[in-house]
User: What shape does this take?
Amino acid sequence: MNVIAKSLHTSRLHILPLELEDYQLFIHQMDAFCTQKHLSYGGEAFSDDFYDVLKQIETLIQTHPTDWVWMTLWLFITFDQVIIGSACFKSAPVDRKVEIGYGMGEKYQNKGYMTEAIEAMITWAFSTGLVDDVTAETKVGNVASIRVLEKLGFRKVKETHELMYWEIGKKE
Assistant: This one.
């Protein structure tokens, strides 16, 4: 399922999918990555849990090289060259569905950046011809994330004690 990935652009952001070499440099030597790309980092903090997820993603990209674009981080970069957040599809499409996950640096939250970036990414996913539905999950109390999904037209399809599950379909 080899899909051509290119950076996306919105009115305020460059959205850059990281190929394996750049992904590895980003997660293992962020300062070197930022220096090489002339960027600074203002995104979400790298907790131990987040770093563990990033290492799992690295393994997925290595073991599924033709599907890398569906697993890699897509960086959200402002026009003044600051990485403010990121997102990833959690796997290649299965039954024409992909799940998206995302995070934003605290300083850049509540400014519409996440809605703008996720809209561009789901539009891209639909444009590949491989995806009819995009799903997401949020913690029940994550008001900002819930608001992003609602603004984009996602509908809640299930809720548990801890999580809410969302879906948006391709508009014909």
Remarks:
- Residues 140 and 160 are 8 Å apart (CA to CA).
- The first helix runs from residue 20 to 28.
- Strands lie at 8-9, 13-17, 40-41, 74-78, 82-89, 97-104, 133-139, 155-159, 163-169.
